[in-house]
Amino acid sequence: MNVVCILLDSLNRHFLPAYGNDWVLTPNLDRLQQRGVTFDRFYIGSMPCMPARRDLWTGVQEFLWRPWGSLEPFDQPLPRTLKADGVFTGLVSDHYHLWERGGENYHVDFESWEFIRGHENDPWVSGPTPHADTGKGQVTPRFRRNRQRFQHEEDWLAPRTLRQTAQWLEDNAGEHESFFLMVDEFDPHEPFDCPEEHWRRYDPDWNGPADFYWPVYGRNDYTDAERRHIHARYAGNVTLADRYLGEVIDRFDDGNLWENTALIVMTDHGHFLGDHDWWGKPSCPHYQAISHIPLFISLPGVAGGTRSQALATHVDIHATILDCLGSEPPVPIDGVSLLPALRGERDQVREDLVFGSFGRRVNWTDGHQVYMRAPARQDNQPLNLYTNRWSTAPWWQIPMPDERAEFGRFMSRVDMPVGRMPLTGDDMRRIHGIDASDLQGGSLLFDIDDDPEEQENLVGTAREAVAAKRMAARMEEQAAPSEQFERLGLLTG
Q: What is the model's pTM?
């Protein structure tokens, strides 16, 4: 068997007809839905971008140990494992984080890779910076320079990346005994920039700034017209990506790849688009708009047009890819294969899971309720960062080691010493702005079956004690650092 995994970044499930949306056009995702299984209870693991990819690449959940960073020397990346088992591996991506400091070694184990340039702040085009009239949005100088290269629809990032994916399949399908292709497509990640015809379909009357396609993270005083326009821009990006996803699906049709190739389409996380009055990926609770995400899997021999209620997260995709390709993980992982659920052999592969962002609330769900546990102390202590990758860490996010740092065998599942450094409030503010505002509102518990909009906080009821106990059990299962239990005020054992 072969596997193609396509990650569309920041994909909000509420903008997909497969999950109930009635106004965004995604005809090719609809085609895939008819070919495969749509998962209704798929959740993030670690946030944001690179933590999610480390979950996917390694099968080991990261957010309890460290924030954004490169693959660690003790990691066993997916392409390395597959290559050792004779599987040819390829990467196609416009996600420049995979090549910049803090993510620069995510591509190195693939036997082939394609880097499509120009997304967001990719340092691609030099020269004068064009003027931008952004209204209440933002546009960075780098993106304005890159944006000059986008003259025709085919010049935008999703068309280039997904067309290269289709070409890769044409060149490689049938040439290898088995292959794995990872496609990391940065759209519909902000900026929500696309050819005018795509966003005009959803907001034909807009007469505001032409560059209003990058909302500022946090809470904003956008008018109804501005909110509608941002939604139109985002929807236009989704529809554009979907159009060129169609060329990949066409390649599956033309080459009859459905018979021997699994196709996975997923995302790393959702995106706040005014949900709970938040925009972007700010330091706020991980409500459903960002944590509950879409997943489509077409598997040879499995009937399409079905839905699965199996609870799953990113590390399970790692385990599933290995299972599809007949490989065993060489080290312990947190993921479990979804093949039994896909084949109808089991309704569930796990009872519950934890997810979150480093240093913030830790979240737990069983697919019916979501518990967001806040730190027990206002100073968010104690909190340690564990890594052996300080030499390539993004210095603007991760504090460099000082006299507080020490090395030792602090991670029970890692067979080498690692660096450990306690973090203070000043340190944490560098990591995506973690500060006391993250703790406002305390813990949250919602019954998402009866209360999908997450309006009634059930913290303080008998259900919270049960959720806290199960959260602690999952954290213990993952050998979470002991101080995380103290930070959250959780009992162990």
A: 0.97
